[in-house]
């Protein structure tokens, strides 16, 4: 058990055996066959290659090497073949680095991969409270995008990230927050939406029935529900709604046809 200098000398018990924590140094890996790293990216970047150079197989739990093209990113049930070239040969063997994927990626792909293998099942990958990057995606979303492509060895797989991981075949779902100059209560909003062309309201609170991608798939109308006052806004100036629509119909082909019809 290896850690920083300040932790050296501490006692830890594992499987009824007491171990003394030692200070992490390059020579710590002399004679080590497998090294499990979970001390953060900076430590992994510094000491991981050192351990590998000394012959250890390093399994790293940080993000340090996940997107390195020369380091396998492994979920054993999914892509163990990607590490088939790495063999444990004892102290005289050549070391190597193996990256452990992000936790959300692992959980997602354990479920999604069997479906992906069977039918290339489409799915959305959703967000996390991580810093937003210049491209509009946050770090957690981009981990899912990049790591999925690497694990599946498919740079063309389309992954989008917003909030939670949900497999869907088609249709977009959007949570929309609206803020108005003039007050608008939810009952008035519901009436306006019911009268709007191309919109259907699905908003049954008692039965917990609201729009879903499955409900709107292969339908022309856009479904709206979860119509409620935004509690963060004073005086009925805010509304929250949930919108689902088939992106192939109204989101693309149908809308183009309707534009053409207006020209006739």
TrEMBL record:
PANTHER family: ASPARTATE-SEMIALDEHYDE DEHYDROGENASE, DEHYDROGENASE, PUTATIVE-RELATED. Residues 1-86 form the Semialdehyde dehydrogenase NAD-binding domain. This is Semialdehyde dehydrogenase NAD-binding domain-containing protein. InterPro entries: NAD(P)-bd_dom_sf (IPR036291), Semialdehyde_DH_NAD-bd (IPR000534), Semialdhyde_DH_dimer_dom (IPR012280). GO terms for molecular function: NAD binding; oxidoreductase activity, acting on the aldehyde or oxo group of donors, NAD or NADP as acceptor; protein dimerization activity. It holds the Pfam family Semialdhyde_dh. SMART domains: Semialdhyde_dh. GO terms for biological process: alpha-amino acid biosynthetic process. Belongs to the aspartate-semialdehyde dehydrogenase family. It comes from the Eukaryota.
């Amino acid at each position: 058990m290896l850690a920083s200098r300040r932790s050296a000398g501490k006692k830890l018990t594992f499987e009824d055996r007491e171990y003394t924590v030692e200070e992490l140094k390059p020579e710590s890996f002399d004679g080590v066959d497998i090294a499990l790293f979970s001390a953060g990216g900076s430590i992994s970047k510094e000491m991981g290659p050192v351990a590998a150079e000394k012959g250890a197989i390093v399994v790293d739990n940080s993000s340090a090497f996940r997107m390195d093209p020369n380091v396998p990113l492994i979920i054993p049930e999914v892509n163990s073949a990607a590490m088939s070239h790495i063999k444990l040969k004892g102290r005289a063997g050549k070391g190597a680095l193996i990256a452990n994927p992000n936790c959300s990626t692992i959980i997602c792909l354990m479920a999604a991969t069997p479906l992906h293998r069977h039918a290339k099942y489409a799915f959305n990958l959703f967000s996390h409270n991580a810093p937003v990057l210049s491209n509009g995606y946050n770090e957690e979303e981009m981990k899912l995008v990049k790591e999925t492509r690497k694990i599946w060895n498919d740079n063309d797989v389309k992954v989008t990230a917003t909030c939670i991981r949900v497999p869907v075949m088609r249709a977009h779902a959007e949570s929309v927050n609206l803020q108005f100059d003039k007050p608008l209560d939810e009952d008035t909003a519901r009436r306006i939406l019911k009268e709007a062309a191309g919109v259907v309201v699905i908003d049954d609170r008692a039965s917990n029935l609201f729009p879903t991608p499955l409900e709107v798939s292969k339908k022309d109308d856009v479904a709206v529900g979860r119509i409620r006052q935004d509690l963060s806004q004073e005086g009925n100036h805010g509304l929250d709604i949930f919108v689902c629509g088939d992106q192939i119909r109204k989101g693309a082909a149908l809308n183009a046809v309707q534009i053409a019809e207006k020209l006739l």
